[in-house]
UniProtKB/TrEMBL annotation:
Annotated organism of origin: Horticoccus luteus
Ranges of residues in domain PBP: 23-302
Superkingdom in the source lineage: Bacteria
GO biological process, one term: phosphate ion transmembrane transport
SUPFAM superfamilies xref list: Periplasmic binding protein-like II
Protein name: Phosphate-binding protein
Signal keyword on record: yes
Subunit structure: The complex is composed of two ATP-binding proteins (PstB), two transmembrane proteins (PstC and PstA) and a solute-binding protein (PstS).
N-terminal signal peptide: 1-20
A molecular-function term among this protein's GO annotations: phosphate ion binding
CDD domains membership: PBP2_PstS
Pfam families: PBP_like_2
Keywords tagged on the record: Phosphate transport, Signal, Transport
Amino acid sequence: MKKILALAAWAALTASVCSAQMLINGAGASFPQPLYTKWFSAYAQVDRSVRFNYQGIGSGGGQKQILAETVDFGASDGPMSDENLAKAPRPLWHIPTVAGAVVICYNLPGQPKLKLEGGTIARIFLGKITKWNDAAITAQNPGMELPDREILVVHRSDGSGTSYIFTDYLSAVDQEWAEKVGKNTAVKWPVGLGGKGNAGVTGQIQQSPGAIGYVELAYAKQNHLPYAAVKNAAGHYVEPSIASVTAALASATVHDDFRFSMVNAPGAEAYPIAGATWLLVYGQQKNPAKGQKLVEFLQWAFTKGETMAAALDYAPLPADLQARVLKQVQAIKY
């Protein structure tokens, strides 16, 4: 009987704590979701009065939901345009959290370690290079026997920050791509099959011999997909890694509103297809109580949380940028 009473008391206490918790909702980019999930889990031990619920629905969805104020914060791998920011009911701020790499994955016999330069990647995704043994590819990979096989391009079918980073890079290195396709979270792809989310693109590549696509580094590693070293602005073929993304981030020009691009960054060790990811937060919070909890969480994230990034294949912000971001967080009103 005593045991039953104790269990009943514990259940009542748990229910009471849960009912007293404040729920803060967020939605958007799937790329940083593993890190944000880690952060929210760890922060639950710091402040038991608040609970975070995050849905990785893609950057396009995150931008739409924060504009509609159906969530307390949004998230995006691509910065919002001036046009979209003008739709916000109040000033909407970009808070960069970490940076990461978009990698070129493929499905070829023997999983060769390819080298690719930007113009070649652009022509593949434009549908102008259609065979794996094309001279443009073999010239960059001397001594490697590539098959006489059709290339199957795989891209994202949903609004995606990963697509934004990839098309931002292609627009920076190839004039024809910039003029015909451009950069955005969703574009009119000249060729290929669409997959939903990083997981969908990964699955299409795994199932399709001869396929090529782009995903976040963590997805390639987790699914044991080979990925290419890409020629950077300094003329070096660089593999994606935390170090090479950090090198790209270090050379990026970060504007006062924290919207910036870091693709094709200068520097011998910089990986060229890299980008930041942002939380989207209103500078004037509508709900004072939630606003205070959100600011307290962000202050924790940019001090304690950043130390968790590298273990999950994200590049943390450099110290000087962290200090600037913390100053912006402290300016949020509630």
